[in-house]
Amino acid sequence: MPSPHRTREIAQYEATHTTVKAVTSTGATLVSADAGKLVVVDTSGGDTTITLPAAEPGLKFSFLVWKTAAAKDLHINSPASAAYYKGGVSWRDIDATGAQALSESNGTSEYRLQMDDPDVGTTIEVVCDGTLWYIWGTVLDNAAPTWS
User: Fold this and answer.
1) 0.70 exceeded by the pTM?
2) Cβ–Cβ contacts within 10 Å for residue 84, how many?
3) Which residues of 23-33 are buried (b: 16+ CB within 10 A; e: fewer)?
């Protein structure tokens, strides 16, 4: 058994590393044990839906789109309409127009985020306060994300 000092060193070392959870077009329902993981998303096989776990204080998830195919949607949903999103994402049009805008939830009822064809490099983060999910990030897509 390691000494108490060595145990602290191991814990500090592990705390600086991020575990990765891969999600494909089959989608995923995350659980609280997935909190803190980088969720890497591959939409190349089809539309992908990710459902967050039930609201708990301190849950945090980071999403990164790393592989895409044309016209494949990505949805990131809260499991309940009462656990809606507050915040928004920066949207950048990646085609020739290069448009940019802020896409924000209404902060009172929208608990589903839909991206029509997010490109590689899209990043989203969500944090839960125990009731609501706070969201931010950058969506690279030809169309602005939508909320419902």
Assistant:
1) yes
2) 20
3) bebebbebeee
Cα distance between residue 91 and residue 117, in whole Å: 12
Distance CA(130)–CA(132), nearest Å, equals: 6
Q: How far is CA 44 from CA 25, 41, 48, 128, 134, in A?
A: 7, 9, 9, 29, 27
Q: In which element (H, E) is residue 88 found? A: strand 85-92
Tell how strand 85-92 and strand 133-140 pair up: parallel
30-89 pLDDT, tens per residue?
999 999 999 999 998 899 999 999 999 999 999 999 987 777 899 999 999 999 999 999
d(CA 97, CA 114): 21
In contact, 56 and 126? CB cutoff 8 Å: no
Structural contact between residues 43 and 17, judged by C-beta atoms closer than 8 angstroms: no
Structure tokens at 34: 């997935």
Distance CA 83, CA 57 (A): 12
Q: For the chain, what's the residue count?
A: 148
